[in-house]
Amino acid sequence: MTNLMVLKIAARNVFLHRMRTLVVGAILTFGAFLAVLGHSFVDGVSGGMENSTTQSITGDIQIYSENAKDKLSVFGNMDGSPTDVGHVGSFQTVEQELLKNPEIVSVVPMGTSFAQVSPGNILDHFLEKIRKSFKDPNHDLQDIESQKRRIRFLVQEIKKNLEGKFEEIGILSATEAAQAKVNLELLSRDAFWADFNDNAENKIEFMANKIAPLIFDDNMIFFNYVGTDPQMFKERFPQFEIVKGEMIPPGTRGFLFHDYFYENMVKHKVARRLDQIKKKMKDDKLTIAGSKEVQDQIKANVEQSAEVYLQLGPAETEKVSVKLNELLKSDEKDFRVLLKNYLNMADDNFQQRYDFFYKEIAPHIILYRVQIGDVLPLSAFTKGGTSTAVNIKVYGTFRFKSFENSPLAGNFSLMDLVSLRELYGFMTDERRAQNKEIEAEMGLADIGQDSIENLFAGPSDANAKPAVATAKNADSVDLNFKKRIMGSSYTQEELRNGVFLHAAIFLKDQSNMKAVIEQINETSKQNKLGIKAVSWQDAAGFIGQLTFMMKAILNIFIGISLMLAGLMIMNSLLMAAMNRKQEIGTMRAIGAHASFIYRLFFYETLFISLLFGGIGVVFGALVVMLIGKVGVPASGDVATFFFSGPRLYLHLNPMLIFVVIIVMVVIAILATQYPAWKAMKISPLQAMQKRE
Q1: Which residue in 430, 465, 432 sits closest to 449, CA to CA?
Q2: For 157-166, which contacts have Cβ atoms below 8 Å and span 24 or more sequence positions?
């Protein structure tokens, strides 16, 4: 009997058992649809993550020390701690060897770690400002008087806020709390301010040491950073762009905040929340009345209104009060109450009050705790656990186009590699020069082994030689540590000859990544470079493994669906074989071979698999092409990183369709085996017995 005839009989049997066919077909359709759409989506996310990661921090390949204690993870460990990857000796030596490979375009040195800075509270800010004014030989006395009024007003507000609450301040002892009351009372008297100009420095120091610490806030800023060659970094990461300020000048030590971090962590708390509320109302279509999250932010602004009014001087307070009463159509005299009423916003007045904030209030407050142009006293811990600090100028902020609102892309700020080395505890040329200068100022002699031993010799040792020869009076020595970093420069030779923690490698063709990684590792062994290479995905750590996990979960789900479909096909065919014993036995009686019975069952299964699997594939392909045109909107800032932009556009892979069809055929073959084997065992005698 021909295959065509067998196929016709199989098709007839499929349509005769429509209910069974539809149930099995629905599962197959869903499985095929999910396979096409799901894999296209995961591939799209994988491509987006690759673009976001390689275009913001990792490059195509990362290299680091082959003796590293931990595996490189540029985003840190799951708990947020940095990985210990050691360091590599000379960047220039490594770069020269790697650039001999024609597949490598460039190598960008870098190192990632974290640091902290305390920019001071509001009183610290105003005290520093008036200190600078007094140091200016051409200072404006009228401006200084205005600053004094603002500081005096702020001190009065601090006193009001702490009235009756000194005992609640846990970090103050009873004695300290009592002294704080006395100090605040002293500053409330006219006598303290009467001779302020004649004794400005001492009085500023008194307030900085005794009054400013009474303002308790979470003013410490913690951040991750990448130290690199800023110019090379900008060139090799084309989506890099300056948002505020300017680029770090070539050969100059400097710092850039990521704009996302600057807006969400450095900006004034009240302004930051207002921005977030506006974004949620616009992008997420949330309302104040309908969102508990937004309501909590409104409540936080009201409760922390002191963050605003403590920064306003008497003149600014009076001016803003008039404007607020006009806006609210009230005649409230108490500015604190007035401000709280204003900050208690609703859906119908939010936009108006938001605009008012930036027009009338923001110009009078410190909108950012760190200003562009400030010199940051960064502190960090070296690999050995000791604390180190550098002063470094903030030149501006930057972002990566397309995913500028992503917290993952905004995870790193940027500084020059020479400053990173100093923060990390490595000796730099400038540090060596400063050490020699300090030794010279203090009159320190070179200490040899004999001198070190003499340090510990007993007083009875008549021949003991002092390790320090005629040191200068310590009081006359000005160490001037603050001049470190700030405004200093470095040479390209210093940058390229020093150590680095890891480096990004960019390729001509990313498809050759695996081969190039092997070549780099082989080059390292031959030339004793002490490095090893890993893909961007491995270097991204847990972030890079997300797509692998997504694919694994998707494939498990699809596999369960298809396995269920296969079992149902096998079960339905087995039941059909039992119900069709008479029919099958009769066919065997008139000469049908066992192979015919097998083909009959196989074609039935193949027909169902290809028909409904094909429907699922076509439907999935149509949805993928539709999404490829309109895109899937990113439902949050994190999604913009995974999508590498505000929308994810899917692309249909023809190979995926071919694979899904092959899987359908495999399911047909596997699901047919047992039912067909049972059917082939049916004999003509069984059919005759059934008929009787």
Answers
A1: 465
A2: 157/306, 157/309, 157/310, 158/123, 158/184, 158/211, 158/214, 158/215, 158/310, 159/184, 159/185, 159/187, 159/188, 161/306, 162/214
Q: Give the whole-angstrom CA distance, residue 627 versus residue 648.
A: 8
pTM of the model: 0.74
**Half-sphere exposure of residue 299: CA atoms within 13 angstroms, side-chain side:** 7
Q: Are strands 221-228 and 412-416 parallel, antiparallel or unpaired?
A: parallel
List per-block mean pLDDT (blocks of 10 residues) for the chain, which spans 692 residues. 63 67 80 87 83 85 92 75 83 94 95 86 87 88 88 86 66 78 90 90 91 76 91 92 95 94 93 95 91 95 90 88 95 93 96 96 92 89 77 94 72 91 73 55 49 43 40 38 55 90 94 94 94 90 75 79 76 69 65 70 78 90 92 76 80 88 81 74 61 48
Read off the amino acid at residue 46. S
- To which residue do tokens 């186009």 refer? 401
Q: Which residue has the tokens 């149509």?
A: 622
Angle, alpha carbons 588-592-594 (nearest 5°):
85
pLDDT value of residue 684:
63
Alpha-carbon distances of 542 from 316, 347, 400, 409, 678, rounded to whole Å: 50, 40, 21, 15, 50
Q: What is the pLDDT of residues 337-350, one digit of tens each?
A: 999 999 999 999 99
Alpha carbon distance 598, 126 (integer Å): 91
What backbone torsions phi and psi does residue 597 show, to the nearest 5 degrees? -60, -40
User: Structural domain boundaries of the chain?
Assistant: 3-51+545-680, 60-108+499-536, 122-214, 293-367, 431-489
pLDDT at 470: 39
- Local structure of residue 69 (DSSP, 8 states): S
Sign of the Cα torsion 602, 603, 604, 609 reads: positive
Report the alpha-carbon distance of residue 631 to residue 402 in Å, rounded.
Answer: 14
Q: Which residues pair with 503 in a beta bridge?
A: 109
State how far the Cα of 329 lies from the Cα of 337, in Å rounded to an integer: 14
DSSP string, 397-454: EEEETT-TT-TTGGGEEEEEHHHHHHHHT---HHHHHHHHHHHHHHTPPP--HHHHHH
Owner of token pair 């109450």: 337
**Contact present, 501 and 64 (Cβ < 8 Å):** yes
- Would you give the DSSP letter of residue 485? S
By the 8 A CB rule, do 642 and 48 touch? yes
How many residues would you count in the chain? 692
Greatest CA separation for the chain: 128
Going by their DSSP bridges, the two strands 375-381 and 632-633 should be labelled as unpaired
As given in the structure block, the two tokens for residue 378 are 């960064």
**Burial class, 58, CB count within 10 angstroms (exposed 0-12 / middle 13-18 / buried 19+):** buried
DSSP reduced 3-state for 329: coil
Distance CA 602, CA 570 (A): 11
d(CA 72, CA 541): 7
Helix pair angle (3-16, 18-53), 10° resolution: 100
Query: pLDDT value at position 379?
Result: 86
Amino acid at 324: L
Structure tokens at 172: 């103050």
CB burial string 462-493: b at 16+ within 10 A, e below: eebeebeeeeeeeeeeeeeeeebbeebebeee
Residue 249: its pLDDT value, please?
A: 94
Nearest 10 degrees: CA dihedral of 542, 547, 550, 556?
Answer: -110
